[in-house]
Amino acid sequence: MSTFTSNNSHIFLPLAEQANPSSxxxxxxxxxxIGAAASTISRRAGSVAAVSQNTPRIYSRPPEARxxxxxxxxxxxxxxxxxxxxxxxxxxxxxxxxxxxxxxELGLHPCxxxxxxxxxxPTCGMTTSFAYFVRGRLLPSLYVQPMGTLLAxxxxxxxxxxxxxxxxxRALHRLLRMxxxxxxxxxxxxxxxxxxxxxxxxxxTGHDGWGR
Length: 212
Hints:
Layout: E1 2-6, E2 9-13, H1 15-18, H2 24-53, H3 70-91, H4 112-117, H5 126-134, H6 138-144, H7 146-168, H8 181-204
Antiparallel strand pairs: 1-2
Helix pairs in contact: 3-5, 3-7, 5-6, 5-7, 6-7
């Protein structure tokens, strides 16, 4: 057994192969292929490491959201009170069977728009709808004013969300940023117009109100 040196690599050869140098060439070529393959693997590993270091932040784990401070929690408390106030008020009034005029129980004047033009205004029937909603009568609430039902439901959802933010400090309202504000506004405006058209239709045809 003897040692053959090539490219700083030691290859041990039997004595029989020393007499035949042509048999050494395949072994040398094999060692060169192994070295080239190792070099390729090393380069690829380096490129993978570089890619992982330059990974955009969108693919990385987002940092933990900061909790709300006492000022933001105070605002959440105010929002929750504003949302629960109309719901509690609706509990103490009786929905008008005519579909409009329930707000007069609160000492307010009759709708001047309806008096002058003979058709209800966009908000006519809202109070009546709220009064039905808080009593669990969803069908009459939807019938007399569909937008009132949606607003009453929204008040309940926002009330619970604001209480959650107040108790935990987690900002649920940040989820609204996922959708542009224009979508919410235009959707609400479109629903208001549709609900008004429905209210005008049942009013002028004499089918306004529930249980008359």
